[in-house]
């Protein structure tokens, strides 16, 4: 057998670095697979790209990992209430998910109330849509009130957001 102690460092170093980086990547992937924020954030990105199947899958995975994560319930509800592709809209599911987000946040998050209002509007319950949008407007900071007011105006006209 050859004496391996004479192998030049320039050969060993790249192999060692490759091994270390491979281990880090595997560890990172294992960490991501248990992190609901990873799936929630990726779900948001998929949703913004219009890749709704992937977004729904990631949101559901995040909820499976942490069923007490109000943000993920809200994001999934928003997708079902406002998706640009009509086939992905589901007002009934949106209402259930938005109610869960509001309950988990003790009804204090204006963004979640806004989602609840959009969800009610999607099922045609404009009384509740208006009620919750008005409550959201009371809690929103000034910078977010304009868009919320536009949605409230639609709900008062018995129109969901986005309008069909």
Describe what is shown at a glance:
The chain is built from 8 helices and no strands.
Please give a structural write-up.
With 164 residues, the protein is mainly alpha-helical. The protein has one domain: Serine Threonine Protein Phosphatase 5, Tetratricopeptide repeat (Alpha Horseshoe). Helix content is 73%, strand content 0%. The protein has helices spanning 9-32, 36-48, 52-65, 70-82, 91-104, 110-122, 126-139, 142-156.
Itemize the secondary structure elements and their pairings.
Layout (H helix, E strand, L loop, with lengths): L8 H24 L3 H13 L3 H14 L4 H13 L8 H14 L5 H13 L3 H14 L2 H15 L8
Helix pairs in contact: 2-3, 2-4, 3-4, 4-5, 4-6, 5-6, 6-7, 7-8
Under CATH, the topology is which?
Answer: Serine Threonine Protein Phosphatase 5, Tetratricopeptide repeat
Rounded Rg: 23 Å
Largest sheet: none
Number of domains: 1
What name goes with the CATH superfamily?
A: Tetratricopeptide repeat domain
Shape type: globular
Helix content: over 70%
Q: Which key features would you list for this structure?
A:
mainly alpha; Serine Threonine Protein Phosphatase 5, Tetratricopeptide repeat; 164 residues
